[in-house]
Amino acid sequence: VYMYRINWKFRSESEVAIDLFNKGSKILIDNGASFAGLAINSGSDDNSFSMIASFENSEMYGDFDDKWVSNPDWAKQFKANWMAQQPIENIHARTLKDTTENLLENEMPVFVNWRFTHPDINAVIGSFEIGEKYWKDAGSSGQILNQLSGDGMGQFLFAARFQSMKKLGKGLDMISTNENFGDDLKDYFKDITWHKNSFTRLIMKKMK
């Protein structure tokens, strides 16, 4: 399980994003990241890309950041990419719960994501445990609950992973028509403030 994730979200031409991933993923994996991915987003922040890096813990991310600052030649490689993109946000995520398993070599899943605030972190964690069985029955191959910082400071993110957008759509149909799901979580939902809902499709990845 990865305990610390970074999501650099931006808009650019596809060629710019792919070139950024090809150069950046090697540096990330060679310097402490366990996973690097490029994803495309729809819904909130529609038609944008996410460059994602996962680390086993925040210390390993900090070590990578120290190396980045002390290697100015790395940044020079990305000058053209940065000039050709529009930054959206930089999100840091600490994992609270994760029932996903490591991706297979040829696996490119999709995710449905909700960002929200709630006054009680224990209630947020408890809701994950209540909802897990419903998402599993709806075909999800795992769920993730993150506490955000950076541009998502003070928010939580819940994501459910599926093997295809068709399966994700079917899962949402099942969840939305399951009265027990809403009944079991109604006391929790009444204190939520929703911020963003998006769909994310992984299109490239590199793993250690």
Which shape, going by the Cα principal axes?
A: globular
Share in β-strands? 35-45%
Distance between the termini: 13 Å
Number of helices: 7
Structural class estimated from helices and strands: alpha+beta
Low-confidence spans: none
Give, in order, the helices and strands.
EHEEHHHEEHEEHHE
Helix content: 25-40%
Spatial sequence of strands, sheet with the most strands: 1-3-2-8-5-7-6-4
Q: What composes the largest sheet?
A: 8 strands, antiparallel, barrel
**What do the pLDDT scores average to?**
95
Report the radius of gyration as a whole number of Å.
17 Å
Q: Report the count of strand segments.
A: 8
Features:
single chain, 208 residues, alpha+beta, 8-stranded antiparallel beta barrel, 7 helices, 8 strands, 37% strand, globular
Q: Mind explaining what this structure looks like?
A:
This protein is an alpha+beta fold. It contains 7 helices and 8 strands. Helix 5 (121-137) runs antiparallel to helix 7 (179-189). The two termini are 13 Å apart.
Short recap of the structure:
This protein is of the alpha+beta class and 208 residues long. Helix content is 38%, strand content 37%.
Q: What are the SSEs and their pairings?
A:
Elements (H helix, E strand, L loop, with lengths): L3 E8 L2 H17 L4 E9 L4 E8 L2 H12 L2 H6 L1 H5 L2 E13 L11 E8 L3 H17 L4 E9 L5 E7 L2 H12 L2 H11 L3 E15 L1
Antiparallel strand pairs: 1-3, 1-4, 2-3, 2-8, 4-6, 5-7, 5-8, 6-7
